[in-house]
């Protein structure tokens, strides 16, 4: 993948992992700008290539009364404003074929959710926009099977594709990450570890997904040691009151310390290569 084709992606020659990070969902303009400003300052300081993440719509929800968004166009315009204000690329997930063309007008990377990564029409529609396509590995899929998802993008004439591992279902209410899959998937595309979603505890009886955020640092360090190309982390200044996935988010004020430690670890790993 040629990251030089991602507009405004800075620090590409720093030797550091790249970071996809932001809130789970766009809840409003002020919160998005506040979170983006903080992450941009930290990643610029640490020379980490950074892409702002925010879902313009949350289509996959446990309950019908769960927060789904503030309106598609409104949220997408906020993502564009983040990009223009802080000169960083942005990523959002899409759920329907019609979302691909719409979202591509506003963001630089289109993400295919894990539950939908086998949906051929959706993956091909994302590929045809010419944007970078981030394929979330299905919780039910093997690392080896992701080569077919990648092929759907490349066979559509788009070489700009990455894979994100967000864990595999372990029983009904837990996730595990099998780091043996990292070198396997790196044969097909750059690999990202979704740190925060890997620590989810889904399918709770309350209809609200749980999580184990105390293990975010452990999971992130393990990913860097295993050789991932990038990290995905959702963060919020008030996780307890976030509209989506607050149970497994990293508090924003803890981000700088964690990323500082991870850049040191990445530098050590680089020295061993």
Automatic annotation (TrEMBL):
- Asked if the keyword Transport belongs to this entry, the reply reads no
Query: One biological process GO term for this chain?
Result: lipopolysaccharide biosynthetic process
Q: Which Pfam families match?
A: DAHP_synth_1
Q: Which reaction does it catalyse?
A: D-arabinose 5-phosphate + phosphoenolpyruvate + H2O = 3-deoxy-alpha-D-manno-2-octulosonate-8-phosphate + phosphate
State the InterPro entries in the record.
Aldolase_TIM (IPR013785), DAHP1/KDSA (IPR006218), KDO8P_synthase (IPR006269)
According to the UniProt entry, what is the EC number of this protein? 2.5.1.55
Q: Care to name a GO molecular-function term for this sequence?
A: 3-deoxy-8-phosphooctulonate synthase activity
Looking at the UniProt record for this protein, which Gene Ontology cellular component terms does it annotate, in alphabetical order? Answer: cytoplasm
Q: What is its main location?
A: cytoplasm
Location in the cell reads: Cytoplasm
Q: Which domain of life is it from?
A: Bacteria
What are the protein's UniProt keywords? Cytoplasm, Transferase
**Pathway the protein acts in:** Carbohydrate biosynthesis; 3-deoxy-D-manno-octulosonate biosynthesis; 3-deoxy-D-manno-octulosonate from D-ribulose 5-phosphate: step 2/3; Bacterial outer membrane biogenesis; lipopolysaccharide biosynthesis
* Entry keyword Transferase: yes
Q: Where is the DAHP synthetase I/KDSA domain?
A: 16-268
PANTHER family recorded: PHOSPHO-2-DEHYDRO-3-DEOXYHEPTONATE ALDOLASE
Q: Which family does it belong to?
A: Belongs to the KdsA family.
Any idea what this protein is called? 3-deoxy-8-phosphooctulonate synthase
